[in-house]
Design goal:
The chain folds into 3 domains: 234 residues, Rossmann fold (3-Layer(aba) Sandwich); 133 residues, Rossmann fold; 149 residues, 3-Layer(aba) Sandwich (Mannitol-specific EII, Chain A), CATH 3.40.930. 42% of the residues lie in helices and 17% in strands. It contains 21 helices and 18 strands. The strands form 4 sheets. It has a 6-stranded parallel sheet with strand order 3-2-6-7-1-8, with helices on both faces. Strand 10, helix 12 and strand 11 form a beta-alpha-beta unit. It is globular, with a radius of gyration of 25 Å.
Length: 559
């Protein structure tokens, strides 16, 4: 990393100096030893030389003398020590970093899993907390730790990656730097003892560090980097006229085999097509919560949680006819690709009576849709050969194309009088009623028309479950522009039992005639809901005016 690297470091330096919120930079690589930590520490020294207050939040040298030497001259925040089952373990001390309040914290190994009992389960969650405090973070990550690549890596490299993080974390980075090294040079470094101790070298060369494995991981890294660059470019040039009915959805069942594989595939497909993606579970009467057993409920809960972690907008719809419900959802949310698992066999006698599988009915009834059927019956057959290419004349990248800041932003849709705070537990209907009253004043709809439509919609598919944030929405005839209200329920929703209390409610009312608007706003607010800094600022606001000011400040800093 020479002149180009120095330019990138200077770019991040300029970003630091003009920002009030924490900026996020990732050194991305394809394996141990390519030099991610080394380059991160070099940048730390450059920033310090430019007068920036830099500390090492955590660095793992793994016994590499060259890396350890670069720690000298930089302030190191001591690790915290904890006892776990009689063993003394060390972890990054987030509290000490927050108390120290440096400008920049260098934090190694973003995908690391913290010891049991830690405040946050994963290090990336620690980093989010540090960023929310206005501290800039530079970190390191290997590409195989991305959740959506788990199946691809297992098939291609024959390893099960235990420590993983959701792909959207990479999308949150303000800057990504690829630390590249040819496989031959990396193997030479390994043989010279610069990566692992002598006794581990031969085993490493025979297993993970084979030329084929390294070339595969290097290719995945370069593809991911190109995708991220393309995403950020498109975020500034896409406009509403380019929106296509090509969102992605994955259909889930309560005990479908290998649902995780379906979700990872859908995540990669949505990434390549630059579209929103949805995870839909159709709850039939035979699968009502009062009917299915606790084990099935647990499996379903884990599946929906993984969907959220991968960045999906999750829906549970009630319906007796699963294919009809899937196609109805696809039509409303402008879905172009449906991802579904292999259906079970149908006995010949049932076929004689006209019985057809779910997939057959979807193919028969779908119009203008691409149906992707994954072989979920074989646990070790995964996505590499089936990974989607940017087919059809659609745009290529990770999330829904963002409208420019001038055409769609939270402040352009909200106003202080459409922000409602509740300082005591409130029922779901009360929240919706009071939020609806705020938006009805700006519409020409009949009294209670919006509320009635919302309550009907919520009875079919509740939106009050998304990790502490709800997105009730409905399309209404007769309104020209979208309407948005924000509810902040500091004590949660009293009649919605969720593991994480729902404290933010985005009410979205869109024109019936233009489904694109609803999709765009859903994409925008779902991304906001993943921004820990934004969520915390909203919940801490004790008046609508303070919440409004926080929104304006956030948008000013983002652009």
């Amino acid at each position: 990393m020479n002149a180009i690297a120095e330019d990138k470091a200077s770019s991040f330096l300029r970003m630091i100096r003009r920002a009030r919120r924490g900026r996020f930079k990732i050194y991305l690589g394809y394996g141990a030893g390519v030099g991610k930590t080394y380059q991160m520490l070099l940048e730390g020294h450059r920033l310090k030389a430019d007068g920036i207050d830099v500390v090492i939040g955590l660095v793992e040298t793994h016994g590499r003398s060259e890396t350890a030497k670069l720690i000298e001259g930089l302030e190191v925040i001591s690790k915290r020590q904890e006892e776990y089952r009689g063993i003394s373990l060390e972890e990054m001390d987030v509290g000490a970093i927050l108390a120290r309040k440096p400008h920049v914290a260098l934090i190694d190994e973003l995908a690391h899993t913290n010891m049991p009992g830690s405040k946050n389960q994963k290090r990336y969650q620690d980093v989010q907390e540090i960023l929310a405090a206005g501290i800039h973070v530079i970190t390191t990550l290997n590409v195989q730790h991305l959740e959506s690549l788990y199946d691809t890596v297992e098939k291609s490299v024959h390893i099960k990656v235990k420590e993983r993080l959701p792909d959207w974390i990479l999308g949150e980075a303000d800057e990504i730097v690829n630390v590249d090294l040819s496989p031959e040079d990396l193997q030479e470094r390994l043989q010279d003892g610069k990566i692992y101790p002598v006794e581990r070298i031969q085993t490493a060369l025979s297993n993970f560090f084979t030329s084929t494995n390294l070339e595969t991981l290097r290719e995945l890294t370069l593809r991911e980097l190109v995708s991220q660059i393309d995403l950020k470019r498109r975020e500034h040039v896409e406009d509403e006229s380019q929106m296509a009915p090509d969102q992605v959805m994955v259909s889930l069942s309560s005990r479908g085999p290998n649902s995780a594989k379906l979700l990872r595939y859908a995540s990669r497909l949505a990434g390549r097509l630059n579209r929103n993606w949805y995870a839909l579970y159709v709850q039939t009467p035979s699968e009502a919560p009062t009917v299915i057993d606790s084990r099935t409920q647990s499996i379903l809960s884990e599946t929906l949680t993984l969907a959220k972690q991968l960045g999906a907008i999750v829906f549970t719809y009630k319906g007796e006819d699963v294919p009809e419900t899937i196609l109805r959802f696809a039509k409303e949310y402008r879905v172009g690709h449906i991802v579904i698992g292999t259906p079970g066999p149908i006995p010949p006698w049932k076929r004689l009576l006209g019985k057809r599988s779910l997939v057959e009915r979807l193919i028969q009834d779908a119009r203008g849709l691409t149906i992707v059927v994954l072989d979920t019956h074989e646990p070790h057959v995964t996505a590499k050969d089936k990974e989607p290419l940017p087919a059809r004349s659609v745009e290529d990248r990770r999330e829904a194309p963002a409208m420019s800041p001038d055409t769609l932003s939270l402040s352009s849709l909200l106003s202080p009088d459409r922000i409602v705070l509740w300082n005591e537990p409130a029922t779901k209907e009360r929240l919706l009623r009071e939020l609806t009253e705020k938006v009805e004043r700006g519409s020409n709809t009949p009294p209670n028309a919006i509320l009635s439509a919302l309550l009907k919609r919520e009875s079919e598919s509740s939106t009050f479950f998304n990790e502490g944030v709800a997105f009730p929405h409905v399309r209404i005839c007769g309104i020209k522009d979208p309407l948005l209200a924000l509810g902040i329920a500091s004590h949660g929703v009293s009649d919605v039992p969720t593991e994480i209390p729902v404290k933010l409610i985005f009410l979205i009312i869109a024109p019936k005639e233009d489904p694109n608007v609803q999709i765009r706003i859903l994409g925008m607010v779902s991304r906001l809901a993943r921004n820990k800094n934004f969520v915390e600022q909203m919940i801490k606001s004790d008046s609508s005016e303070k919440a409004w000011i926080a929104i304006l400040n956030m948008e000013r800093e983002a652009f």
